[in-house]
Amino acid sequence: MKRRFLMTPGPSPVPLFVRESLSQEMMHHRTSEFKEILKKAHEGLKSIFCTENPVLVLSSSGTGAMEASVSNLFSKEDKVLAIGGGKFGERWAEIAKAFGLNVIEMNVGWGTAPSPDELTKILDDNKDIKAVLTTLCETSTATVFDVEKIAKITNEKDILLVVDAISGLGQDVLLTDQWGVDVVVSGSQKGLMLPPGLSFISLSRRAQNAIATSNLPKYYFDLKKALKSHANDDTPYTSAVSLIVGLATALEAIKKEGLEVRWKKFSKMAEATREAAKALGLETFSQSPSDSVTAIVSPENIKSSDIVKILRGEYGLSIAGGQADFKDKIFRIAHMGWISDKDLIECFLLLEKVLGGLGYEFEQGISKLRLEEVLYG
Ligand SMILES: *Cc1c(COP(=O)(O)O)cnc(C)c1O
Fold first, then answer.
1. What is the DSSP letter of 31?
2. CB 127 within 8 A of CB 121
3. What angle (nearest 5°) sits at the alpha carbon of residue 21, between those of residues 16 and 27?
4. Above 80 in pLDDT, residue 2?
5. Cα 248 versus chain centre, distance
6. What DSSP string runs through 327-338?
7. What is the pLDDT of residue 353?
8. Phi-psi domain of 37 (left: phi exceeds 0; alpha: psi -120 through 50; beta: other)
9. Is the Cβ atom of 63 under 6 angstroms away from ligand 1?
10. pLDDT of residue 139
11. Nearest CA to ligand 1 atom 5
């Protein structure tokens, strides 16, 4: 039996102190004991989302919160702009189309971030666009988008901004209120050190007003009901009790360490990852690299899917391959949540073994040296 270790951009490792809190004996969700815990979780979410607005907890993976934001903010045939450039940006367009919205797609090349000028032009040419749907960290390409700049543009034009921060939250800086982001969605299994199963959604005053007039069909993910329950530290239907107990524990630990300390830590780990790749003679993929995950271009003649397969099969270490056209071209290493500098060093040690075994030539041990220089130098 091999120990499993995840360095994938979701799910990511769950620390023992969180797993212990997940395994507590079941409590009923309509009790003051549970409400206290949910209240703590609600407060903790506000601080990691950097907002004073409510952050709702839904029982679903992250995509559920993406869908809930579309079905609750808009009405039939509303025009929205979805920014593509990877698998998850494309998901925004797919969801909006599924709900019958009039979707304009702004597609940027995979591995690049949207240009503010191009965004401004599209919005100027389409004055009836009601919202921009975009991504903080486009996980499929390991690219961070300049949400602050995008928010500046949407605020000048009084357009809603909806941001998928499912993988980015906790690593890539996101100042929701300060930048004026209306809606931020996230999930439990990436930067928050929890298993999959919870999603989160923050709603500005402007977003709450949009919800009041939306006419799209919804039932379980009716955010009007969820907001009403949230005000009493409650959920409309049975709460995901164990996951919420774990959430409160994880958020407390993040608060204790400090969000800004963590941002710096992951930024350093991301830089170290890029530098270690470079030391091995490998290129990184993104023009605007994220602090949550790094995409590395596989050496010529070596399929990245083989690297991923061997790491998992031989060593129990999971990293992610590429998606769509880049399936065999890139591999992705996450540095989020509970993943540490030591894990990163171990990952490159094994990566060197696998690359060497596949006939790739480099100076043995060089990635560890470079990692340590950046991390501790
Ligand atoms: C993981 C991820 C999602 C999808 O989340 P699920 O929890 O699998 O539904 C959406 N967007 C981004 C940016 C992601 O990283």
1. S
2. no
3. 160
4. no
5. 19
6. TTTEEEEE--TT
7. 98
8. alpha
9. yes
10. 98
11. 62
Cβ(89) to ligand 1 under 6 A? Answer: no
β-strand pairing of 198-203 with 55-59: antiparallel
Question: pLDDT value at position 358?
Answer: 98
CATH, domain range 5-10+258-376: 3.90.1150.10
83 by DSSP, 3-state: which? strand
Is 164 close to ligand 1, i.e. is its CB under 6 Å away?
yes
Residue 312, SS3 per DSSP? helix
CB neighbours of 261 closer than 8 A, spacing ≥ 6? none
What is the architecture of the domain spanning 16-257? 3-Layer(aba) Sandwich (3.40)
Work out the angle between the directed axes of helices 259-279 and 241-257 (0-180°, nearest 10).
Answer: 80
Question: Ligand 1: does its nearest atom lie under 6 Å from the Cβ of 323?
Answer: no
- Between CA 317 and CA 315 the distance in angstroms is 5
Ligand 1 atom 6 nearest Cα: 62
Q: Where are the domains of the chain?
A: 5-10+258-376, 16-257
Give the integer Cα–Cα distance in Å for 48 and 297.
32
Tokens of 257: 């360490």
**d(C-alpha 166, C-alpha 360), whole Å:** 34
Averaged pLDDT, 341-360: 98
**CA angle 82–197–94, rounded 5-degree value:** 20
**Is the separation of the CB atoms in 80 and 94 below 8 Å?**
no
3-class DSSP assignment, residue 46: helix
CA nearest to 70, candidates 180, 218, 176, 219: 218
| Mean pLDDT, rounded, for 288-295 | 98
Output the pTM of the full model: 0.98
d(CA 209, CA 63): 23
3-state SS assignment for residue 66: helix
Q: What's the chain's average pLDDT?
A: 97
